[in-house]
Amino acid sequence: MRPSPLSLTGSIFMISEHGGLVEYHFSPQDGWEWVEHGTPHRDVTLVVAPGPCFDGTQLFVIGSDG
């Protein structure tokens, strides 16, 4: 999982071609790293790009189930 669970600062989120949520995260120690967060439940797909983060630690995504 993510090296720094306290903040989404320095991260870019996107949907992979396989439907999973991936993060490109900047770490001062290691530089840029890819973090895979997996896919939603098997009957759900992510339908739009990830939205804004809230409170610095929560990310909004929309699934095919609403």
Using brief descriptors, characterize the structure shown.
66 residues; mainly beta; two-stranded antiparallel sheet
Which helices and strands occur, and which strands form pairs?
Layout: E1 11-15, E2 21-27, E3 31-36, E4 53-54, E5 58-59
Antiparallel strand pairs: 1-2, 2-3, 4-5
Task: Characterise the protein shown here.
It is a single chain. This protein is mostly beta strands. It has one domain (11-59). Helix content is 0%, strand content 33%. The protein contains no helices and five strands. It has strands at residues 11-15, 21-27, 31-36, 53-54, 58-59. The protein has a three-stranded antiparallel beta sheet, with no helix packed on it. A hairpin with a 3-residue loop joins strand 2 (21-27) and strand 3. It is globular, with a radius of gyration of 12 Å. It starts with 10 loop residues before the first strand and ends in a 7-residue tail after the last strand. The model has no long low-confidence stretch (mean pLDDT 80).
Determine the number of helices (DSSP H or I, runs of at least 4 residues): 0
Q: What is the overall silhouette? A: globular
- SSE ordering: EEEEE
State the share of residues found in helices, binned by percent: under 10%
Structural class: mainly beta
For the secondary structure, the number of strands is 5
Number of domains: 1
What portion of residues belong to β-strands? 25-35%
Instruction: Give the neighbour order of strands across the main sheet.
Output: 1-2-3
